[in-house]
Automatic annotation (TrEMBL):
Protein's UniProt name: DUF221-domain-containing protein
Coiled coil stretches, renumbered: none
Chain intervals with Polar residues compositional bias: 778-787
UniProt domain 10TM putative phosphate transporter extracellular tail: residue ranges: 836-892
Source organism of the structure: Jaminaea rosea
Ranges of residues in domain CSC1/OSCA1-like N-terminal transmembrane: 43-191
Gene Ontology MF, one: calcium-activated cation channel activity
GO CC terms, sorted: plasma membrane
Region (Disordered): 750-847
Pfam families named in the record: PHM7_cyt, PHM7_ext, RSN1_7TM, RSN1_TM
Length: 903
């Protein structure tokens, strides 16, 4: 699901870049001088073109929205019924008011706290930028533009660099100083308000019966456990001091080659389903083309009645390097035999889990939520690093199993090494970003750098496209590749869960955006316009401060264009999801080769990758804070951008995304985004401080001298106060963003969530605080256990679909987490009433049974024959709940595919 979300985000970004090529030609309309009025035409043309693109996308969205519910409102009819949202009216405009009136906070109930806090962060930025936009436009625009001796025109008139260097004009720097102080205090006030609001929301969320009654809320993952404590009884005794003690312990074990065998069987099952389905589809095609009668040819084997010997699928076995040599065999017969062999091998190797040596980590299910939280925050072992890493609210579907057995010292070394490597890659990306920044300002370079004079001979439209389109595309490609690398670094660091990997990725991406996409690009893009002046300065460095003061503010035009692109084309593309729409139908047409694939194409719903999405938004925050005083025009564009982002992400978080419990952190991404925003504020203050200290005034005798030392001193004072605020704020809240305060526990039964049925979001079991709550949750779960009736997700029919193979059965009294709807028996599946079965946190190679082979039922009897032959090999198989329609295409009508669970 997260992968789907990442692909969707990248596709949306590429759609947004469509406007860049046409927007870029605006740069060719102005003078080659970066201080010229070309900045005005660049911004206005960018605005006009992206507004037109956005209008077209929004119009298309309004028209297509009711026609493609799978793309534009899957959350209204897919997934667990208790998490679905009320669909909006299908009329063209009748949906707008119901969407506007729907409270954003309702996102918590359908998609969890992470999704809501992302929307809430955008709302916070609207509140921050609204007053800043009005205040800076009123105060700073006249100060910068009115009666100054600067040489800039167009929108560059409205920047810090337009203030002349005369002694009188230099006194105007008091205005940006005042503005930065007011802006800083306003940002700190709003940030504090939203941080405290988040803490309350998170506390309400974690103590609510809906969340607190789950086993996930009481499960702790501990890594780095020394051998003398790697025993279930020893761990229970160690944590017996916690309220209620430990109910269950699952030890991580060294399974040696067992996971590889398990993965090999899964691949073989996939191949068998694909091969058998291909045979059946081939028979349908031959009958349709009258190449064979519907009764088939005379043959003993059912397949031979419709396929010749040459048409039967084959595969190579024993080939070297995957393709050299090997023997050709019948694919179906070989796969059946291979799966039979792997089933027997897994059964013989599984045996008793205690046959495998425990390895470094364990999952502990506490009897009480408060006991789990106390164990998380308590120092356990008296030696360094041992049992030091503890992760609250562990979920089996989020575990990265290979990382659990890592030695704590090795994990520390890996963490340090891959963080160092992260900064190395940030450095490697520097010249690439620098090249991109230089290309964005070829107009200035070709007139000032002799060996680039030929660039000025390029036709203006072509040069404009190169300047605007190429840098944006290069940045997009670089920003797509880097998260892949940085996510790998986070995973290789030894983090044990996917949520921890995404949190680490968010931090790494924030550093990258701050250093490369903002600081470096600002300096290179601004100074490159005055590169001919840099060369003489190398022999006389005293002129560098004046150059920095003059040219750094000039990069604001690129960032204004970037914000316009993201706000208009980006938001419009996010709503339209043209890439998602196209990919959906391409998959349905080309990849719907098996019932399982068809089901997932029609039922899977994407979700965002927070590790990349949050940094993308905080980058815009950093850029806006950085130029809020230097180029206040950006504040208005950013304010509108965040309004459009709010509309976009409120809609997608409500009707499009489907956040899974395994990926929920209860808002921790938000707190890291706050830190990233504060870093952006520090950078803005640092830049203005440097500009004040480097500001030069031209004296009457022709000499130059520093003119704004007092302003620079006051900026240092402001930076100290900002750091103090940041420290005091986070010190005052302490562990509140992650802790469970005892004072809230009595209020749990009266939480605002108590009226809601216990759902699957954030849960893998149900065990309420009281018998009444527990029975209420059970009745609600039983009443909503089957799929709803709608065209895209048909209800499970009363007959024709075997509940054992695909339909979701009613939740049992144990709220058991196992196969999530497929009641195939697993090891230790007779769990007690604690909301988790005995095999919940066993490795899938120990826990999961052979997934049922699912074949499309056909009128020729081929699927029935294939199912029987598979069962002769001891392979669980079925052809129920699926078949062919009148167009000979595969269809399904089950709530969950056989052998899978509803996540």
């Amino acid at each position: 699901m997260m992968a789907l979300g990442r692909q969707s985000s990248r596709a949306t970004a590429l759609v947004a870049l469509v406007g860049a090529a046409t927007m870029a030609s605006a740069q060719s309309t102005g003078s080659s001088n970066p201080t010229s009025g070309g900045s005005t035409s660049t911004v206005l043309l960018a605005l006009a073109i992206n507004a037109a693109i956005a209008a077209g996308m929004v119009t298309a969205f309004i028209i297509l929205r009711p026609r493609f519910p799978k793309i534009y409102r899957p959350k209204s009819f897919l997934g667990p019924k208790e998490e679905r949202v009320e669909p909006l009216p299908d009329s063209l405009f009748g949906w707008i008011m119901p969407f506007y009136k729907r409270p954003s906070k309702a996102i918590i109930e359908s998609n969890g706290l992470d999704a809501y806090m992302f929307v809430n962060y955008i709302e916070m930025m609207i509140w921050i930028l609204g007053p800043i936009f009005i205040f800076t436009w009123i105060l700073l625009l006249p100060v910068y533009a009115a009666s100054t001796s600067g040489d800039k025109t167009g929108f560059q008139l409205l920047t810090f660099g337009q203030v002349g260097n005369g002694p009188t004009e230099q006194k105007r720097y008091v205005a940006p100083l005042l503005a930065q102080w007011v802006i800083t205090f306003w940002i700190c006030w709003i940030v504090r308000k939203y941080v405290l609001n988040f803490i309350k929301l998170r506390q309400d969320f974690i103590v609510s019966p809906r969340h607190a009654s789950t086993a996930q809320a009481r499960t702790l993952l501990i890594t780095g456990i020394p051998n003398d404590f790697l025993g279930e009884q020893k761990l229970k005794e160690l944590y017996s001091h916690m309220p209620g003690g430990v109910e269950r312990v699952w030890l991580n074990r060294d399974l040696k080659e067992l996971p590889d065998i398990f993965d090999e069987r899964t691949k073989a099952l996939n191949k068998l389903e694909a091969t058998e389905s291909k045979i059946i589809k081939t028979a349908y095609k031959k009958v349709k083309k009258n190449k064979v009668a519907e009764g088939g040819m005379e043959a003993d084997d059912a397949v031979d009645r419709y396929l010749t010997k040459k048409e039967r699928p084959t595969m190579k076995v024993g080939a070297k390097l995957g393709c050299l040599g090997g023997q050709k065999v019948d694919a179906v017969e070989h796969l059946r035999s291979d799966i039979e062999r792997l089933n027997k091998e897994l059964a013989s190797r599984r045996g008793d889990e205690t046959d495998y040596t425990p390895a470094n980590a364990a999952f502990l299910l506490f009897r009480t939520q408060v006991g789990c939280h106390m164990a998380k925050n308590m120092t356990v072992h008296h030696e360094p690093y041992k049992m030091a890493r503890r992760y609250i609210e562990a979920h089996p579907d989020a575990v990265i199993w290979p990382n659990l057995s890592m030695n704590p010292y090795a994990q520390k070394i890996r963490t340090a090494a891959f963080w160092a490597l992260t900064f190395v890659f940030i450095g490697v990306w520097l010249p690439l970003i620098a090249f991109t920044a230089i290309v964005s300002n070829l107009n200035g370079l070709c007139t000032e750098v002799p060996f680039l004079s030929w660039v000025c001979l390029i036709p203006k439209p072509a040069l404009g496209i190169i300047q605007g389109f190429l840098p944006t595309i290069l940045l997009a490609v670089l920003n797509i590749l880097l998260p892949i690398i940085l996510r790998l670094f986070a995973r290789l660091s030894g983090l044990p869960t996917r949520t921890e990997v995404e949190l680490s990725l968010q931090q790494r991406m924030t550093w990258f955006n701050l250093i490369d996409n903002f600081l470096l690009f600002t300096i290179i893009s601004g100074v490159s316009g005055g590169i001919s002046r840099i060369v003489p300065i190398l022999s006389n460095p005293s002129g560098l401060p004046s150059l920095i003061s003059q040219y750094i503010p000039l990069a604001n035009i690129f960032y204004i264009s970037f914000i316009i692109l993201q706000a208009l084309s980006g938001a419009g593309g996010g709503l339209l999801q043209v890439a998602g729409l196209v990919i959906y139908y391409i998959k349905a047409f080309l990849l719907g080769s098996t019932p399982r694939k068809v089901w997932h194409i029609h039922h899977d719903v994407g979700a965002p990758a927070w590790g990349t999405l949050f940094p993308a938004i905080t980058l815009i925050t950093t850029v806006t804070f950085g130029y809020a005083v230097l180029a206040p025009l950006i504040n208005g564009f950013a304010f509108v951008a965040f309004i459009l982002f709010f509309i976009l992400y409120k809609y997608t978080a409500t009707y499009v995304w489907d956040m899974k419990p395994a990926n929920e952190t209860s808002g921790l991404f938000f707190m890291q985004a706050i830190n990233a925003s504060m870093a952006g504020l520090y950078v803005s203050q640092l830049i203005l401080t440097v500009l004040f200290f480097t500001a030069q005034q031209r004296n009457a005798d022709g000499t130059s001298s520093q003119s704004s030392i007092p302003e620079g001193v006051f900026m240092i004072i402001l930076m100290v106060l900002t750091v103090a605020f940041h420290i005091v704020l986070f010190d005052s809240v302490g562990d509140l963003p992650t802790a469970l305060p005892l004072t809230l526990l009595p209020a749990a039964s009266s939480s605002s969530y108590s009226d809601h049925a216990t759902g699957s979001h954030g849960a893998y079991g149900n065990d309420g605080y009281s018998p009444n709550e527990k029975q209420h949750a059970l009745r609600q779960s039983e009443s909503t256990a089957y799929g709803g009736s709608n065209p895209a997700a048909p209800a499970v029919p009363a007959t024709g679909v075997n509940v054992t193979h695909g339909a979701r059965p009613p939740v049992n009294g144990n709220g058991q987490y196992g196969n999530g709807g497929a009641p195939t028996k697993t090891m230790g599946s007779e769990g007690g009433d604690d909301g988790a079965s005995e095999d919940t946190f066993l490795h899938p190679a120990l826990r999961d049974p052979q997934r049922t082979v699912w074949l499309p039922r056909d009128r020729f009897g081929l699927s029935a024959h294939a199912v029987n032959r598979a069962r002769e090999h001891g392979i669980d198989a079925t052809d129920e709940g699926t078949g062919f329609n009148e167009k000979n295409r595969i269809e399904t009508d089950v709530y969950v595919p056989p052998g899978e669970k509803m996540l």
